[in-house]
Amino acid sequence: MDWFSHSSIGVLVLDRNLNCLDCNPFASELIWGSFNKTPNQDLPKHFAQAIQPHIDSLLKGEGDAYATHLVIDLAGEHLLLRSEFTLVDKGTANPRLFITLRNSSKSAQQARELKVFRNAVENTGSAVVITDPKGQIEYANQRFTEITGWNLEEIKGKRPNFLRSEKTTLETYKELWGTVLNHQQWRGTLLNKRKNGSTYWSLQNISPIHDELGNIINFVSVSEDISQIKEHDAQMEKMAYYDPLTNLGNRRSFRRTLDQYLDSPQEQGLNALLLLDLDHFKQINDTMGHEAGDALLTTIASRLNFCTRQRTSVFRLGGDEFTIIFRNCNDRTHVIERTNEVLSLLAQPIHIGPHEISITVSIGITLIGLDSPDASDLLRNADLAMYYAKKSGRNTFAFYEQHMDEEAQRTLSIEHDLRSALDGNQLRLVYQPQISADNGKITAIEALLRWDHPLDGPIPPDEFIPHAEETGLIIPIGRWVMAEACKAAKAIQDLGLPPIKVCVNLSTRQFDDPALISHIEEAIETSGLDPRWLELEITESMLMRDMSTAIDILNSIKQKGISLAIDDFGTGYSSLSYLKKMPVDLLKIDRSFLQDIPSDRDNMAITSTIIAMTKQLGLSVVAEGVENQAQMAFLNRNQCTLMQGYLISQPVSLTQFTSNYTDCQHFCGACNLDKTCDKRSIDPRVDLFN
């Protein structure tokens, strides 16, 4: 019987004692683990014990057939068997038992797995939607309802296009359906719409399900609401690419944008990069506080956004530096016109609290792609041009030019070589005398620093001192200057000559140095100079940054018997109120006021006013930069008797000054002394100090 041998149902014939009379191969495999049963082989113990109660029920006449499920271990496997028992030849001496066995283990396992899967789908944190091949919804889990507000009853049989928002492009949906209909999985993000009309970001994973022949029978979409992640990403993006104070793009955003411009095809017209730096912003921060500084920066940012147009990008690099990128300018003249618009708008007064502030900017301009195709080089070019604009008087702009690179290289060289100048004995002091016009007597000498570079020769002080200030090298250099100047003044006295003061300039960095007082004490003690013969010169701007602290420092210096002078008076705040508070002895009128005297009546008026004001405060006054007799006469008429300048003497070495001072301690041109003057030891027609 072929059906008996090839059936996928196990068939087993037993006698009443459970001896196997016959079985087909499938039953043999289930029970004994082999297709071919060994003759006279007993039933496995577990199997016999499992079927015995059911056979007993039949033999007792409780029925002719019986069906049940057996859970049994056979041939090393845990099986679920659907079993049917039939008693044949009932009523004879040798009844037989006909048993069919079906292995339901696989079906049961699949049922359990399906139940577990359904439970998992219902309770997953992801939204699950299943559609038919036409995209009509057959199933949606609870999480989908929680995210979208739609339940299965409302959407069953519909296509999911009701989730579309206007903010997701049609191209995205075309790509989606093109991918899944091509039997491939699609993964991406969609901005979907909820039932209440609000939108949310959905991370979608849509897969086609195939039958045995490879035909698509379903689509399964698994999605997650990533709105919070997107919001967090947006916040991180803002933190990474935007300035929190002004909401402008920051340095990283600027570099990204500039790189995009450089990588994109060249457009018509000029693209220009502008670097803006606020002039004297630090003074506003120092005098009005950082809150006022922040308010100023915010206003500047708003104005830059207002005065720039489409195809223009504005960024804040940090501090008081901003950049603007102009795109598609017609020509260089167009760039200049737009830059002047920026300068004009930013120059308008700004109201911060009760204060009205006027701020200017210096702007460096470089042409993108023409000056360089590299972002770093372009920023460097704009930086060089911006510093050139500051040197040109501020509140202006400058285009990058190649010679600026050469100047920058020289600056770098100066800063590098300056570090070894002090140790290499390349620095020296020269001295310029001050006189009293009453009698021509020399009253003081000012110590001035010079640098003799071993390769480049003499380097002007205004070229290297600012770099010493910026790098902090001015601290050890200033300490050396003070020590040498004190030694020089003491050396003049030791020659038996009339004592004169030595004047030493203090830089801003020195004034801020906590070790300043100890450095002064060290110079005085080492040289043996009486402190009353030392005069320290400071500038107005140094005092105004923190007046309370400045007064404390000046009082500490004053208590040691040292004189104090305000240098370059008239170029800074020139405030009577702070002069009354400062423990200073003398003002030095800046040389710029004397340059055009007597031809410039404005300078004459300013200078005479400063002299009168100083006299009223009981302070002495020295005029710097006296270069001709007309200037000296003007100062004499206005009762400014202390003078210094090239008319009297150029700065000379200590050796030269000492030699001249030994011969004569006066400048006779101040009082027109005649030949009989006993204050000179040589022919009065000889000018010892020129």
Can you put this structure into words, describing what you see?
With 690 residues, the chain is of the alpha+beta class. It has four domains: 108 residues, 2-Layer Sandwich (Beta-Lactamase); 106 residues, PAS domain (Beta-Lactamase); 165 residues, Alpha-Beta Plaits; 253 residues, Alpha-Beta Barrel (TIM Barrel). An eight-stranded mixed β-barrel has the order 18-19-21-22-23-24-25-26. The protein has a five-stranded antiparallel beta sheet with strand order 2-1-5-4-3, with helices on both faces. Strands 7-6-10-9-8 form a five-stranded antiparallel beta sheet, sandwiched between helices. The longest helix is centred in the last third of the chain and has 21 residues. The termini are far apart.
Number of strands: 26
- Helical content stands at 40-55%
How many helical stretches? 24
Morphology call: elongated
CATH architecture of the largest domain: Alpha-Beta Barrel
Structural class: alpha+beta
Main sheet: strand order = 18-19-21-22-23-24-25-26
Under CATH, the homologous superfamily of the largest domain reads EAL domain
User: Which residue ranges are poorly predicted, with pLDDT under 50 across at least 5 consecutive positions?
Assistant: 680-688
CATH topology of the largest domain: TIM Barrel
Average pLDDT number: 84
Radius of gyration: 49 Å
Give the terminus-to-terminus CA distance: 141 Å
Largest beta-sheet details: 8 strands, mixed, barrel
